[in-house]
Amino acid sequence: MQPSYLTAYSSAATSAWKVLDWHTVPFSVGVAITPVGGVTGWALDITMDDVTGVFPPPYGTPTVFGASQVNAGLAGSSTTFVGVISQPIAAVRLRLTGGGGSVTASILQAGIG
User: Fold this and answer.
1) Bridge partners, residue 28, by sequence
2) Rounded to two decimals, what is the model's pTM?
3) N or C: which terminal CB in the chain sees fewer CB atoms within 10 Å?
């Protein structure tokens, strides 16, 4: 699988969701975060729910969690980060939480070919 890229700009602080294949065994998603410009903070969001709306959760919109709940290093910062999410999740998105510029996440899921 080729890497996917999520970018959040100062004018639109949240990227689109990247749907992942939670059926892959073992589940493993590499994440590299690269802030550019005056970024003072970023955060990675995850969800266990279907963000496409095909199978919406019974409680309405998808529940969003901070990725730090599955990898403490993904708590967000103003610096670059490389890490792994090994707990199955349905989707991931990136947020710019402070400053200007942009922040990009490179997402690479193992086992997809």
Assistant:
1) none
2) 0.87
3) C
